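Re: your question from the hallway

Yes, I did run it. Sequences:
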Amino acid sequence: MDTSQIISILSVAIATSTPLVFATLGETITERAGVINLSAEGTILLSAMVGFAVAKTTEGLGTVPSLLLGFGAAALTGAAIALIVAFGALTLMQSQVSIGFVLTLLGADLSSFLGNPFVRIPGPTVPSFKVPVLQDIPVFGPLLFQSDLLVYISFLLILLTWLFFYCTRPGLMLRAIGEQPAAAFVRGTNVVFMRYFYTLLGGALVGIAGAAFSLDFKAGWSHRHTAGYGWIALAIVIFGGWNPLRVALSCYLFGILQSLASVAQSTIPNVPTQVITVAPFVMMILFLVLTSSEWLEKLLKLLPPRIGWAIAQSIHSKPPAALGRVFQQD
Amino acid sequence: MRVELHNICKRFGSVQANDDVSLIVEAGSIHGLLGENGAGKSTLVKILSGFMTREQGSLQLEGHEVNIKTPADAMQRGIGMLHQDPLDFPPLSVLDNFMVGQPGGLFTHRREVIRKFRQLAVQFNFALDIRQPVGDLTVGERQQVEILRLLSLGVKTLILDEPTTGISASQKDALFAAARLLASQGKSVIFVSHKLEDVDELCDRVTVMRQGRVVGNLPIPAPDAQLIELIFGEELAPPAKNSTCQEGVALALENITIRSDRLNIQVNHLTVQQGEVIGLAGLEGSGQQLLLQLCAGLLQSSTGCLQIKGIDLTRQPYQTYLNTGVGYSPADRLREGLVNGLSIHEHVALKTSSQGWFVDWKGTLKQAQTAISLFNIRGKPDTKVERLSGGNQQRTQLALLPVPLNLLLMEHPTRGLDIGSTLWVWQQLLARCEGGTTILFTSSDLDEIMQYSDRVIVFSGGELSEPIDAKKLTVERLGQMIGGKLHYDSPVMAKRSTKHPAKR
Amino acid sequence: MISKISISRFNVYQVGSLVIALAFIAGVILMVGGSPLAVVTSMGAGAFGTTDQFARVVATLAPLLLCASGLLFTFTAGLYNLGIEGQIVLGGIAAMIPIRLFQEILPAPLVIAMAITAGALGGMLWGLLAGILKVYGRIDEIFAGVGLNFMADGLALYLIFGPWKKPGVASMSGTEQFSEAIWLPTFGKTEASPVALVIALSLLLLTFIVLRGTYFGLKLKAVGHSLRASYILGIPALSQLLSAFALCGAFAGIAGSLQVLAVFHRLIPSISSNLGYLALLIAMLSGSQAWLLLPIAFFFSALNIGSLQLPLSLDLESSLSGVIQGTLVLFALLGRGFSELNKSDLNKTVNH
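Structure:
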């Protein structure tokens, strides 16, 4: 395998994991506020369909406006589903998991039912756009700057989310709300309102992820087109330790697994394609299991303390302490 | 800042937590607020800091009437409170904790904040590493972070709620020095405590509360004896219990260490006779509960050994304790004592679970009805336990304790019960003692401790006293011990209190 | 008096949520230019029009009942067993083992019995795995379950395209059909198998009895409500959780083996056909009442089969059944929330 091959694997990996970057960052924001939006799988499917349908029906307006409308509609779809989760969980105090799960199934079925006319037809897609100058940088150029606008926006989103979390006052408060809502309340925040806001914002990003599939990377829509990606997004958020950078890197790791899988397909022909398609999902979950269980901690104790500690620091992470818990102001 | 609270009233269910309470704190002073558990101190300061709403009464700051409804209101008017349990964000760094809730623009301006933090920290002589997560700090250091944060927000009145529990001597010195510095700057400090010596050392004036009312307001120094009398009332009930001690050791502890995040408890040696009743006195959270949970098998000691009826149960599983005849009745009824969501009948049925596969619903229904009438529980067999009132939950919990038991561990056996039921409960418990059951119980009601204990152990900040014969206890001695002077020289003390009861 | 008020309020919210749910469904149908009335008749005819169709409703009912019964154990223990899909798949895979080994050696009834037992064991293994990850590995059962679902799917695909592939060319249509002798007997030439139905109904009855009448069920309920309090009351809480996973897995595994034995007569890639997730909806809607499972499962099963007619008769997607099921459960949950919310408001005003 030569360098150019590696670069092409990596660049494909980065591009294909772009929708996941939107979805996982959205979910990270929601969960950092202390709410689990389990409906990602259904949200992605439904918003992929809605985004494509809107862009397709407005195709006459020109590619750019129709794409914008498509992405906007997808974001609204995601936010609408998130609103149901937030209302059920924060106002009606019902189980976040139950509501999220029902919405997962409902979103999937609604997308199939409503999206029937749009199955496997050509529609507008995000045009590729090579960044002048930057694309000529050796290695980095082909790796990062020879795809399309959505990919660059995802880079920006990672950076912005990270900046928001760790350099802004509202971002600090967001992290605080998810850890100890009572203490955040004492510091003058309306916890329930902020949780609504971040649940909706996160939902909108998950919705955009859906449109990123149908209007860009899968270039079209079909039944259950993105099956599995919502679940994997939820797992990646845990694997990435609710930290935007690590979450994004975990998305790329998943992308690399997928690219490798497609390479493996041509090099080891006796393993069936179908198995290879599932393999990245299985491996990602295995990673998650390995890193979040306490067995790993025991294993790390066998290593020299400093190395063990360093590894533990880099892969281990605790969820926001108030994740999934209702905050009742007394 | 001069703070005035006038005629504050607040009620929780049937308990009048604050009953027409008034308090005036002068600018530039440190004002102590003394009282035992449930005297209403915390309620009062939580009302002042906007954490709770009052039902009646008014607040005045610098002579102006104000209305404080939320913590944000209070902060805006310059009132900040250091909560008893740190209300902070354990995984976030010291600096992040300092910054949460600070006013400002979109960005955090880290460098500027660090400068401000360092400046304040130097001023108060606090040594804190800004990068460390506060979860890794001691309680005392977490308090320091919180105090600096409140001061950076321009607090003019600082409330300290039981700040000296669980912190080291040097941290206490630093805290007190900080409080004095603030007072010298014209700010006011309200110091809520139960420790006489701390109030003595720090405060200019003290207000004493008992049962939701203000019972005294005097300048410091004030005679200990007078303060103790104000805190606990004139007299304790006399020890009324006939000894139920029997031959044979029921419980023996040797060289036990219990660690929790706040306390470190060391029991060198303790033996309790069969049938004996030991009262565990002290402020809530001073370690009594940890000792009970250790004896129940729910906590493990890292050292030493524990024997019940001569059987070594050190590091045995909880189930073995249950099989040895140990019963535990926790104070947190709906989280630990009873299963939230299950009915009385189902609880009674669970108790019979060793009898085969199938539940005898008819038989257990009769048992439940018997228990309900016997223990006078206001509820039906199919009433879910969370629908019962606190007192009736307590009765249910009592009804579920197995008979017979070797060792019974009770947290607040009569909390929430009226006088008649309290008498009845103790009648039941003492009957068990006659039968050889040993009881260890905690109570925040000193009368109850005095009336029903053979011996009393006093807890203060994780330390515990030798067991003392209840008949030899005086209100003064008990007050001193609860206030932290556990190893007070008792003979001298006894002499002094007989000769000069109100002078020191 | 008070209880009467709260019961009638509860009903108001339940009926209200049902009405809104139906309105939402009608709206969705209108959106694609369909007629709600036509849909009702078409789905009714699709489910009950011919004996063949009715038989398919019954055939779908059996695995649904099995999975929903199993899920009652995990729900009672306070667990969301999202791994049920994988447990069905493992049941299907495990059932294939004795069939492949013994189909030509041993008598058919014995092979069938062995296949069902193997299915139960396979599902139980997968359920226990999720339980162990939850109890000892600190991994939320939801993600452990979803992860194990992916793995089960991968395993099934691997077997179908690898070691168990059809002679000639492997395909998504599954392994080679096994001999007809081992097919479960059916009513006439339909898909409905009396054996599967009897197994499902008796396990439903068993579930009802265990949860209502045994100490195991009562302890499970206690653990589900409060792990800490149950532990203090002396209930071995962790082993209760593991047993709930094992039981649910076993039930799902039997469902998987019945899918193999009675419906597909081979292993196919998506042997669970989303029945596990559908069963989760059924269990949620029942509010953990075992006796409600039968009518709800029957209704949902009829929706599933009835909707298969839609593409032919009205040119609508058959996933409408899923839309109806999901909407009903979603609004039932929200309605439950409203009634609880207002009940607690009522209590507050009484207290003041």
